[in-house]
Every structure is written in C-alpha cells, then in structure tokens.
Write a structure and sequence with these properties.
heterodimer, A: mainly alpha, 0% strand, B: alpha/beta, Rossmann fold, 9 helices, 25% strand
C-alpha cells in the first residue's frame, strides 16, 4: 500500500514537473511557430468531424429529451435557453475535451512513443535540437489553443442541432429560437467556459506528450502509454471540471 | 590529449554497473572501433559520449571541452560539431529522404536555399542514393536506411562521427559495402570517429585502433594486429567466434 502511494506521489510530481517545464519553455525562444501551426492544422482537421458530429447530436438529443419534460411544467419555450446554457457552460467544453482526449491525446502519445523507441527523439537531440521544445511544447501549445476553438464549433453545432429538433417537432421560427438561445447567455456563462477549455487543452497536451515522450518498454510500452494517456487525461479533466465548476459558481454564481 | 578523451568513466543503471573505469583516447582524424558482445555497454558508452545518457563519474573531453556536467545549451552547440549514425538509422518517419537531409541544415540557418539543395544532392551522390530523394523512410531497405542515416549525419560536415553498430541487421555484402563507404567518407572528410560493433569484418575495414569491451571493462586496446596476438582469454574467444 505504501509503495502504491509512493508511486502515485512520484507520478504526480513528475507530471507536475513536466507541465511546469512546458509552461516555462513556451515563453522562451525559439517559438517554433511553424510547428505549432502545423499541429493546429493536423490535430484540428483530425478532430473536427468527430467533435462536429458530437455537437450536432448532443443538441438534437437534449432538445428531443427536454421538450416533453419542460412541457409538463408549461416551460416548453425555455428549450432554446436550456440547450444553449447547458451546452455553453458544461456539455460543450467537457464533451469536446473527452472526445479530443480520445482522438488527439492518444495519437500524440503513440506518435511520440514510437519516435522514442525508434530513437528519432535521440536523433533530434544529437543534431543539436531541443526535442522537448520542438516536439512537446509545440504540441501542448497547439492543444491549448485548439480546444477553445473546437468547443466553440461544438457549441454552435449543438444549438443548430437543437433548432433542427425544435423545428421538426414544434415548427418554431428560427428568429425566435436563436434570439432566445443567444440572449439567455450571459458573459459569466461564456468566459469561465472558455477559460476552462484552455485548461482542458493544456491537460490533454501535457498528459499525451508526457506518456509518449517518456515511454519505456519498446512497442508494448507505446500501447500502454497511449491507453494511459486517455485514462489519465479523462480523469484529470473530470476532476478539474468539478473544481472549476465549484469555483465558477462561488465567484460568479 | 586526443580529440576525444575518456577518463575513469563509470555508469550504472538502477545500481547495476554498466561501464567501469573506462579510459580511451582517440586522436584527431583517427578511427577507434569498440568491439564487444551484445549487452556489454557499447551503445551506452557511445550515447554517453554525445551526452544522451548521464555518467555517474569520470570525464569525457571532446576537443578539450568537458561534456559531463555541461550546460544543456552548450551541449547542443557542441553536438552540432558531431554526427551520429544510429543502429536503426533513426530517420524521421514523417519526412521524405529530402526532408531528413534538409532538416539539420534548415535548423541551423547557415545556408541559403541553393546551397541546401546542392549539399543534399552531393550527400546522396556520396552514398549512391540519388534516386531515393523523394522516398519515405518506410519505402527504404535496411541498407538504404543506413546510407541515408549516414548522409544525414555527415551533411552538416561534423568533425567527429559516432557509429552505433553500422552493419548490424545487414547481409554480409551490404554490411561490407557500408563499411567501405564509411572508410571512404572518413578519408574524404578527415573525421575523428568511434564505432561500436560486434562485426570484426567491419572493424578490419574502418579501424585505425580497436578496443574490446567485456562486461563494462576495456580488456584490450591496440591495433588489429595487436589484437590477433593478444593473450587475453576473452579477446581470443571473441576472435575465434568471429
């Protein structure tokens, strides 16, 4: 039991150290902007179909499920507001983060892991290139920038999905639906949500990169690292979400 | 003092000694081949010389500069004077052959576009693979990968070359061709080199001197002729098995 605690403490310490190194190196030249843009393009393109579909489906499902429930209380008109608030505040950020963890976090981990076992990372190092900055920091920055963008897309598509559901069931006008959906949102719904997606993106990047960059045990190790990246990042995102949700309510209500 | 000077080098992993009191010197423009069976610490020694693995104690001086305990940024600068051929070539698999060769030159920003193209063409001609320029590493055979790895290591015109098992995994004919290519490039660029291998045929082609590593200890150092006359039991067994 004691050994397990020590192992856990070691893991937390190493991951924190890795994250701190990412943060520190992100603000030091060279900034590798070409690599960051390349990763944004690649990771964004990889994730867009998945998160886009998720957004659309979530909007459709919430609208279909909530309309009869709200109708029981004579509150059917609040469907657009309920969808937009729940998606923007919580469902958009968390679902996007979990989808991107599965798609991008595992991919980063597998990619860096295979580079490690085939000595490509060592090859960068012996060429006089700081592999941490070139491979890790660029991917972490890309993930951190990517998640707010993807979440924005998910939010919009979810509201569109909800509109489609509402249109087929109640023939509501587009003007009324979107007016209600947009004007029910306050800045205190939007700003904390954006900030939290930045944190989620950083977590996905750091955990994915750490698992791959420090892989041991050959090709079997790459598989383990990829699975661990998804499990660890997902749990950490859920836990962080809980803490940030409480903090947001305490600060802004 | 030689171009590469190793004194009292000790390395251990998790308390298990890998290298014990290793002392070696390589003069400028000469080639030292370190022979030994698998798992004796040859690759560890090579990775230690270029600073990829940290030593427990001892000294490694490259061109007079001590690399143990060196500031990481200074170590990156020093590595730019060195080339390294990896056992599996370690080509960047997300880039074509052209990309692999251009990459170290572009990172250093010392050459213009025309010079980069000319240097890549020249290196590919030297290793006899001009036609492979647009291929991806996955499309290359083991021998071709080694040649491209060699071209990439030499494209920045290093003063020092380190070769990790340059002929391992290759058939005897391709292995001999690679050894001759290394010897040719050594002479052409006047490189100071260390190669680790268990292939005596390769050592015969490229070595000026040889050292034999057994269980982390240098048990022989001298010329190939000296090695044939050695009375050391392990050296005799190694030669007999080759």
């Amino acid at each position: 039991m004691k050994a397990a605690y020590l192992r856990f403490a070691g893991l937390v310490g190493n991951t924190t150290g890795f994250a701190w190194r990412c943060l520190r190196d992100a603000f030091r030249p060279p900034y590798e902007s070409k690599e960051i843009l390349k990763h944004l393009d690649e990771l964004g393109a990889k994730s867009l179909p998945l998160v886009g579909t998720t957004g659309l489906m979530i909007g459709l499902i919430i609208a279909i499920q909530s309309r009869p429930v709200l109708a029981r209380f004579g509150a059917e008109m609040y469907v657009p507001a309920m969808v937009s608030i729940s998606v923007v505040r919580e469902l958009g950020p968390i679902l996007t983060a979990l989808m991107v963890t599965g798609r991008v976090g595992s991919g980063i981990s597998a990619e860096l892991g295979s580079m490690r076992v085939t000595e490509q990372i060592d090859a960068l190092e012996v060429s006089g290139i700081n592999s941490f900055r070139y491979l890790v920091v660029t991917r972490v920055i890309a993930c951190t920038l990517l998640l707010p963008l993807l979440t924005g897309i998910v939010d919009v598509l979810a509201i569109l999905g909800a509109f489609v559901a509402a249109l087929t069931e109640t023939h509501v006008s587009a003007n009324l639906f979107f007016h209600s959906a947009v004007y029910s949102l306050w800045l205190r719904d939007i700003i904390p949500a954006i900030l939290k997606t930045v944190v989620f993106g950083f977590i996905i990047g750091v955990i994915g990169c750490r698992q791959g960059y420090t892989v041991t045990g050959g090709t079997a190790g790459v598989g383990h690292a990829s699975t661990n990246a998804v499990v660890t990042a997902s749990l950490l995102i859920l836990f962080t979400d809980l803490v940030l949700a409480k903090l947001t309510v305490l600060l802004w209500g | 003092m030689g171009m590469i000077d190793i004194r009292h080098l000790q390395i251990s992993f998790d308390g298990v000694p890998i290298l014990r009191d290793v002392n070696l010197t390589v003069e400028k423009g000469r080639t030292l081949v370190i022979l030994g069976t698998s798992g004796t610490g040859k690759s560890v020694l090579l990775k230690n010389i270029i600073g990829l693995i940290a030593a427990d104690s001892g000294s490694i001086r490259i061109g007079g500069e001590e690399i143990i305990g060196m500031d990481p940024e200074d170590l990156y600068k020093l590595r730019r004077r060195m080339g390294y051929l990896f056992q599996g070539a370690a080509l960047y698999d997300w880039m074509s052959v052209r990309g692999n060769l251009e990459f170290p030159l572009r990172r250093r920003e010392l050459l213009d576009e025309g010079e980069i193209i000319a240097r890549v063409t020249e290196q590919l001609r030297l290793v006899g693979l001009e036609d492979a320029i647009d291929k991806m590493p996955s499309q290359l055979s083991g021998g071709m990968r080694k040649r491209i790895g060699l071209a990439r290591a030499l494209i920045t015109r290093p003063e020092i070359m380190l070769y990790d098992e340059p002929t391992t995994g290759l058939d005897p004919i391709t292995g001999r061709d690679i050894s001759h290519l290394i010897q040719h490039l050594q002479e052409q660029h006047t490189l100071t080199s260390i190669a680790v291998t268990h292939d005596i045929a390769c050592a015969r082609i490229i070595a000026d001197r040889v050292a034999i590593l057994d269980k982390g200890v240098i048990c022989f150092e001298g010329t190939l002729d000296d090695m044939s006359g050695s009375t050391d039991t392990f050296v005799k067994r190694f030669i007999a098995a080759a």
